[in-house]
Amino acid sequence: MASGWALAHPDAAESGRASRAAGAMRRPGERGRMHELALCQSVLSTLAEQASIHHFDRVTTVRLEIGALSCVSPEAIEFCFAAVTRGTLADGAGLELIRLPGQAWCLECDATVAIDERHEACPRCGGYRLRLVQGDEMRIKDLEVV
Ligand SMILES: [Zn+2]
Fold first, then answer.
1. Is the pTM of this model over 0.85?
2. What's the CA-to-centroid distance between 106 and ligand 1, angstroms?
3. Which of 47, 63, 102, 115 is the least buried, fewest Cβ under 10 Å from its Cβ?
4. CATH number, position 92
5. pLDDT tens digit string along 69-86?
6. How far, in Å, from the CA of 122 to the mean position of ligand 1?
7. Ligand 1 centre and the CA of 15: distance in Å?
């Protein structure tokens, strides 16, 4: 339950960005918010690093891959990204989130299978001897810069 609230939050679809932020702040105990903020800060430091290596001044679009099992809330990411990049080289940059499906290696089937949740049974054999291979990561796929 704790891992799913952010993605399935009932207010998320209807409320504006500001009230979602307020909602997030009313939950100081939710480790997830800090997680997304830290992720966005690390994205920003990667952007700054890339800017000095590749000599660009502004980032206009960032494409992020987010694993379906990562427990990261896309809405929180969008909010944190906008907040963290304000006044930086990525101020106002568009953010595109690409959801990566979960994949696991089933020891019984000796094959890669798709899973929607952590600790889910193998869809082929129903077994639980699965090793996660993709779906809990978040990374920068690519950037558009000027
Ligand atoms: Zn299996």
1. no
2. 5
3. 63
4. 3.30.2320.50
5. 988 888 999 999 999 999
6. 5
7. 41
